[in-house]
Amino acid sequence: MDWTNRLRLRHLQILVSLAETQNISHSAERLHMTQPALSKWLKELEADIGLTLFERHARGLRPTAHGQILREFAVHIGNELDRAREEMAALRDGGSGRAVIGASGATIAGVVPQAVLSLLARMPNASVELVEAPMDRLFQQLTQREIDIAVGRPAAKYHDPGIASEVLYEERLHFAVRPDHPLAQRKSLQWSHLLAQRWVVWTRDIPARDLLESALSAAGRTIPGASVQSNSLLATIALVAESDMVAVVSERAIELPERWKMLKRLPLLLETPSAMTMYWRKDALGFAAVDGLLDALREVARQPARTVRPRKA
User: Do domains 3-74 and 171-274 have the same CATH topology?
Assistant: First the structure.
């Protein structure tokens, strides 16, 4: 008998719990089962499959390579069922479906919110979930079917047969300070003025960090040693708005804090053209809200960025 015919959603939840806790007694308590019943079920499943899913040791369990693969399938199935439940709930409540979009710091304050507003103007009953994370995490969430769309800087490592991508636009990096910063008042700005200040720069896991370092190297410069590293646009804005620090931000990410008069870009522009790309799950196409959001992103990306004309560094 095919062992998959005996699997139920409850069994998938048990597998995921065992992989997470790596402990029979902890999982039994979490799942409101007895430890003997859980041990018996696991042994029977392994016997049916003909593979060892967990290695037993003194401190508990450890998933084998086979167990890890089955766990990933269980997580995917669980995520798909969650999506189906949420999609049906949105439709039942008179909505137009649901879309989950992830944005990196470079797009969280500009293109992505604008696209969400554009979608809701056309589909007011759509349900949208917006999350922020570094692109490495967003791409992982895409492959695990936790989100439908991700927008951020591309990288060669972001490749999966189930994921499609499209370049939305190119932009450059800017230096920015609080509006009443002494550097904002200077008519002539030199590198020495910038390097005398403390910078806020991206952490090393953010793709833009590599762009910044390459551009500085080409100009014969390096990031000041006393810089603060941040992977949060909100934290960067807060640091710079309340101090004399200098931030390096992407062209469109600065639009909103500049309109709110929280930041002001400086007249020095780094030669760092960088593509912004949207990634989406191919199997998410056909859902009205997802399709509509992809179209809204394309529409917003075609609109020119609000820029000043700084001189090149």
Answer: no
Three-state secondary structure call for residue 105: coil
Q: Is the pLDDT of residue 194 over 90?
A: yes
Q: Take residue 185 and report the two structure tokens written for it.
A: 């008042």
pLDDT for 10: 84
Sheet holding 274-281, edge to edge: 127-132, 98-103, 149-152, 274-281, 163-171
In angstroms, what CA-CA distances link 231 with 127, 129, 256, 270?
27, 21, 18, 20
What does DSSP say about strands 264-269 and 274-281: parallel, antiparallel, or unpaired? unpaired
Phi then psi for 186, rounded to 5 degrees? -75, 135
Beta bridge partners of 176: 247, 265
Tell which wins on pLDDT, 10 or 273. Answer: 10
Of 139, 111, 241, the C-alpha closest to 180 is 241
Q: What is the H or E stretch that residue 141 is in?
A: helix 135-143
Structure-token pair, residue 199: 């910078």
Cβ atoms of residues 236 and 208 within 8 Å: no
Tokens linked to 195: 């390097």
Confidence band for 160, pLDDT divided at 50, 70 and 90: very high
- Cβ proximity of 161 and 127 under 8 Å: no
Give me the mean pLDDT over the 194-198 stretch.
94
Q: Is the pLDDT of residue 227 over 60?
A: yes
Question: pTM value?
Answer: 0.70
The CATH classification number of 171-274 equals 3.40.190.290
Q: Look at residue 243 in the predicted model and tell me its pLDDT.
A: 96
Amino acid at 96: S
Paired sense of beta strands 246-250 and 54-57, if any: unpaired
Q: How far apart are CA 86 and CA 311, in angstroms?
A: 49
What is the assigned CATH class of domain 3-74?
Answer: mainly alpha
Architecture, CATH, for domain 96-169+275-302 = 3-Layer(aba) Sandwich (3.40)
Convert 78-90 to b/e letters by CB count within 10 Å (16 or more is b): beeeebeeebeeb
